[in-house]
Amino acid sequence: MIKVGYCVAYDWRMLQNSIPPVYNQADIICLSIDRNRQSWTGESFSWDEDAFQMLISELDPLKKIKIYEDAFYNPDLLPMQNEVNQRNKIAAFMGEGGWHIQLDTDEYFTDFPGFVNYLKEYKSNRKVNICCPLINLYKITAGGILWIKPNSFSQVEYIQIATQYPDYEYGRRNGNFNILTKFPILHQSWARSENEIWEKLKNWGHAKDFDIKRYFLQWKQVDSTNYTSYKNFHHLYPETWPALELKRTDDKVDLFSSVDKGDFLLPITNWNLAKANSIWLSRINKLFRYFSR
Fold first, then answer.
1. Taking Cα atoms as reference points, which of 188, 217, 211, 212 lies closest to residue 199?
2. Cα–Cα distance for residue pair 148/264, rounded to 1 Å
3. Which residues in the chain come in under a pLDDT of 70?
4. Where are any strands of DSSP class E within the chain?
5. What pLDDT is attached to residue 285?
6. Do 24 and 121 contact (CB within 8 A), yes or no?
7. Whole-model pTM?
């Protein structure tokens, strides 16, 4: 079975872009929502139940979507610990077996049928995470949309998406071996309004991991005239976002066509994937790092 789970909160409206690409191939779609409408930091978020139910009725003609409400905020835990708790509860709600896929509401698959075929053909007894590269959108400006373009394979940001052994330890990460693929996910990420960005920064799992006010100011200042000055600016791991690229668009931005997928995939070669996905090479590298300390 193909089981897709979402952590749903203040940005639930983004489900209108995230669910349609995965709907036909998914057997179960779980939308998990804090019953008290609190985020992982304990902030209360606004909620329009009538509008939410109307959106779900439009997106779910085959009744695949299950709503799971629980108390996911614990004041004794850090925001990231609350996120991990929610993700593990989603996995338990969807039950053992099959492929567990966890997505955020602002993550949009560009080829989910191909990804599902890959999962169904994957044969291994190892506990693995199947990972996808993120096409990170940074800001919609008057001159077009800014996105993070990797210049090398090492700069491609991968995220753990699917596993048959869901046991999350940090976000969607765990100790399973990571298998990298060429199925990109469009990540709307920072390409939102100012109010939405500030709400995201206050409420997400990384809210305590960096200076959110400083980063918010940096995000506000970037535009289509000064974006080339932004170098190594990822909020946690600076070098993973080396620079911004501008894709000029018409007045109406179509997120799904805002980035040339082929251009993005250029640094991801079959040779790089083969090296990254070799468990033997991974073990050798770990031994080398251990003895070189």
1. 212
2. 9
3. 250-253, 280, 282-293
4. 2-8, 28-34, 65-70, 99-104, 107-109, 128-141, 144-148, 158-163, 177-180, 185-187, 244-247
5. 60
6. no
7. 0.89
